[in-house]
Amino acid sequence: MAAARHDLMQRLPKVRGEYTADAPLAPFAWLRVGGAAEILFRPADGVDLADFLAAKPGDIAVTLIGSGSNILVRDGGIAGVVIRLGAAFRECRVAWQNDSAHVHVGAGASDISVARHCRDAGVAGLEFLSGVPGTIGGALRMNAGAYGCEMADVTLAAEALDAAGGRHPLAPRDLGFAYRHSAVPADFIFLSAVLEGRRDEPPAIAERMAEIESNREDSQPIRTRTGGSTFTNPPGEKAWQLIERAGCRGLRRGGAMVSEKHCNFLINTGGASAADLEGLGEEIRRRVKRETGVTLEWEIRRLGRHADGQTMRAGNGQDGAS
Fold first, then answer.
1. Which entry of 69, 192, 229, 273 is annotated as an active-site residue?
2. What is the mean pLDDT of the segment spanning 6-23?
């Protein structure tokens, strides 16, 4: 195994960023489970990332993770190269055009940090991001939304790299936003976006953000090791209601548990494995299908290999946000 990692490292292009072999990924994931990345790459900036993608051998798999808010890294880890965007991808600046604000944000910026920056700058309309865990890249990838607003409502433009490192400016029509989905190719990596806001007084914005935080605290298990919403809402249905009907609230498997507060959240109660959490999720899907006839679709991205080395589901794209 060590020899294989060494061989892989030798095949990778020179970069200005940092490669780390056998890098644990559990510390990056909100669920705090999962194996290691064969190679973890932290690019120095967008040019470094583009050069890496252009030069790397085509047979080496690439997986990108953001803040780890809605990923489940399997116990066998992720083969190939895992990319994590650092400080160079966390820009947030506001350009005013009369009372309209264009907020230029890096894909690696956390949603909450963007919401707070806008609050302090007197930019309204992006308060909903304070209720969305994850990064801007993930929010773009899955058209993240909360409290009556979503990325489709505020995104003016974005920029992404394709699998060969080519840059692509993206207009709203190119993003193809739908419910918890964008039409951008799965192997694109978002670099940045321009979001639209409007002028308002910071205290009024702060009040709305405080209401969002209070609502989240009351309804979601945000003080636990969780990955956000586990399943997307089927058309005309609420996933949590279907899970409730199937009798899954409080259901356990090993150290994994269905939240008592909000049963579309899985919790690592301590000592859970990725297999515990994924197995519990699949049990929920079986019970909901049996009880209601509805097949729940995972919202959490499950990445990598099981501990026995089987089943690889990885690929480019930022983790989303629930």
1. 229
2. 94
